[in-house]
Amino acid sequence: MDYEQLKKLMSEQKDEMTAAERLKAYNAGEEVDYNPYTLQAPDPAMADIFGFTTTQFAKDFEVKSEVIRRRRDEFGLDSFNVGLGLKTIGGALGSVLNAPEHGIDYVERHILQDYADFDQLEVTDPYKNPKLAPILESAKKLKDRFPDVSMTTSVAGPLSTAIAVRPVEKVLKDTRKNPEMLHKLLDLTVECSLKWFEAFEKEFGPVGTNFSDPVTCMDVISKK
Fold it and tell me: What distance lies between CA 179 and its chain's CA centroid?
């Protein structure tokens, strides 16, 4: 079979399963109509492709719904993610975030400048925290609107979350000068992430989950 023949066969491929059915069967080792796939393009990036701003996608339910619909219709991506960004838990713990109209949010003021204030931080409750509860509610509304579309969730990894709570230069110094408190901070970030996953599982059952921890790259910290 050459490439042109393969393209023709692919164009004639008809969906026989929903994305949720396909992923469930694939994970169980069962036969599927075709292998599940996605694009490494987060939803805010897709929103940009479709002409919306980052803020519109984050705050406007109809815009978010339109992006999900067009992802499915134009790219065949029969799934969507309702998760936490790299800095969301930091904001939920009290850091001040700034979200430009078009672009990536950033930390304007970190909540944990001094470990003397560490005991004031509490594990976040996705149902009560003012930063997290609206995201969980948005997931419920989106699932109601797209019941047959597979939904996933995500969080940031421990170190990436830690630098949304405490400035990165201080976290890097902690690796040498205060590893005990850094471990406590990392334990807190992990517990906050797990609470999010637990809430999502409680509301929607088992779903695909993922986390990314870009701060662990060797451009920032050494292997040691």
Answer: 27
Q: What pLDDT is attached to residue 95? A: 97
What are the residue ranges in the chain where pLDDT is below 70? none
Query: Is there a contact between 103 and 54 (Cβ–Cβ < 8 Å)?
Result: yes
CA separation for the pair 46, 30 (Å, rounded): 31
At which residue do the structure tokens 């026989």 appear? 16
The distance of Cα 172 from the centroid of its chain, to the nearest Å, equals 24
Burial 159-197 (b: 16+ CB within 10 A, else e): bbbbbbbbbbebbbebeeeeeeebeebbebbbebbebbb
202 neighbors 221 (Cβ within 8 angstroms): no
Q: How far is CA 165 from CA 58, 83, 160, 190, in A?
A: 21, 18, 9, 13
Residue type, 95: S
Contact predicate 165/97, CB 8 Å = no
Read off the pLDDT of residues 45-79 as tens digits, 9 standing for 90 and up: 889 999 999 899 988 999 999 999 998 888 878 78
44 to 40, 102, 205, 221: CA distances (angstroms): 12, 10, 25, 28
CA distances from 198 to 23, 53, 191, 195 (A): 20, 31, 10, 5
Residue that is written with structure tokens 């936490």 in the block: 84
Residue 106 phi, psi dihedral angles, 5° rounding: -145, 160
